[in-house]
C-alpha cells in the first residue's frame, strides 16, 4: 500500500529538523512540494535546502504542484466556507498527486511548516481524500518544532506560568476579545496586529517575525510601550520582503 509521511520541518531554521524527520526523509521515494507562487518562494526554497542537505546522494523524485489560491477577501460568515472550498481544492490536487505520482508500494512525503498538528490543513486534507475512497494509503505524522516553540525559545521564556493555562489562538479570534480564564495567549495568523486593541491593559508582549531565519526579528516588553515600534518594524519588513509571518505571546498581569 502507498505510504505518506507528513513531516514537520520546523518553522524556518533548517537545524530544527529532528532526527526522526531525517529518517523519514531518507525512507521517502517522492516529495510533493506545493508552490504558493512567487511571493513565498523562500518557503519552498527551505524545503529544497533541507533535501539537498540531508539527501545529497539524491535517489528521490520531486513533484511540484501549484497550491490553489484562497479567497482572502471573504470575511465574517463567508470565512469558513472560503477556507472549506480552498481545502477541497487542495484535496483534489493532493489526491491526484498521490494516485498518479506514487507507485503502489512507494512512499511519498509532504514537508509541513512547523508542526503538522498546529494550524495546518494537511492532516484534514489526507482524511478528506481517504473519505472519498478513490485512492488508498496509510500515513504517519512526524512532529516538528512549531513557530510557537521557536518563539518562546528565542525569547527565553515559558509558554505558561506555574500551574496556569495557556491558550493558542488566531488574530481573528483575539479581535473578538481577550480569551476568558487565561492570561497567557499565543496569537498566530494575525494579519492585522490585533494586539493594538489591548494597549491599555497591563500586558507584556513577546513578538517574533521570520523566527529561525536570517531575517528574524524579535521584540518584547510592555505592550503599551513597544506596540508602535512593532507596527513600524513589521510594516517595513513586510514591504521589503513582500510577506511576513509573525507570532506573539501576550502575557496579561505579568507581575502576578
Ligand atoms: C498556517 S500557520 C502554520 C503554523 C505551523 N504549522 C507551526 O507549527 O508553526 C502559519 C502561522 O504560523 C506562524 N509562523 C510560522 N512560521 C513562523 C516563523 N518562522 N516566525 C513567526 N511566525 C511563524 C505565523 O503566525 C503564521 O501566520
Automatic annotation (TrEMBL):
It comes from the Bacteria. Signal peptide: none annotated. Its EC number is 2.1.1.152. One of its GO terms (biological process) is methylation. It holds the Pfam family TP_methylase. Keywords: Cobalamin biosynthesis, Methyltransferase, S-adenosyl-L-methionine, Transferase. This is Precorrin-6A synthase (Deacetylating). It comes from Streptomyces triticiradicis. The gene is cobF.
Amino acid at each position: 500500500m502507498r505510504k505518506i509521511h507528513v513531516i514537520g520541518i520546523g518553522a524556518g531554521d533548517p537545524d530544527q529538523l529532528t532526527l526522526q524527520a531525517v529518517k523519514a526523509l531518507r525512507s521517502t521515494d517522492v516529495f510533493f512540494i506545493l508552490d504558493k507562487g512567487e511571493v513565498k518562494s523562500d518557503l519552498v526554497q527551505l524545503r529544497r535546502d533541507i533535501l539537498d542537505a540531508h539527501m545529497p546522494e539524491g535517489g528521490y523524485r520531486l513533484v511540484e504542484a501549484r497550491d490553489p489560491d484562497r479567497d482572502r477577501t471573504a470575511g465574517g460568515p463567508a470565512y469558513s466556507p472560503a477556507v472549506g472550498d480552498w481545502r477541497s481544492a487542495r484535496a483534489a490536487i493532493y489526491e491526484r498527486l498521490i494516485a498518479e505520482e506514487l507507485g503502489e508500494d512507494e512512499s511519498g512525503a509532504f514537508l509541513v511548516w512547523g508542526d503538522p498538528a498546529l494550524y495546518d490543513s494537511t492532516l484534514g486534507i489526507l482524511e478528506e481524500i481517504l473519505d472519498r475512497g478513490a485512492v488508498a494509503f496509510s500515513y504517519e505524522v512526524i512532529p516538528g518544532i512549531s513557530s510557537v516553540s521557536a518563539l518562546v525559545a528565542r525569547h527565553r521564556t515559558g509558554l505558561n506560568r506555574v500551574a496556569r493555562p495557556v491558550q493558542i489562538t488566531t488574530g481573528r479570534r483575539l479581535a473578538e476579545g481577550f480569551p476568558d480564564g487565561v492570561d497567557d495567549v499565543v496569537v498566530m495568523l494575525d494579519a492585522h496586529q490585533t494586539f493594538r486593541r489591548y494597549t491599555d491593559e497591563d500586558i507584556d508582549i513577546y513578538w517574533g517575525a521570520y523566527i529561525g531565519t536570517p531575517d528574524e526579528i524579535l521584540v518584547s516588553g510592555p505592550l503599551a510601550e513597544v506596540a508602535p515600534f512593532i507596527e513600524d518594524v513589521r510594516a517595513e519588513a513586510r514591504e521589503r520582503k513582500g510577506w511576513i509571518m509573525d507570532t506573539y505571546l501576550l502575557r496579561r498581569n505579568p507581575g502576578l
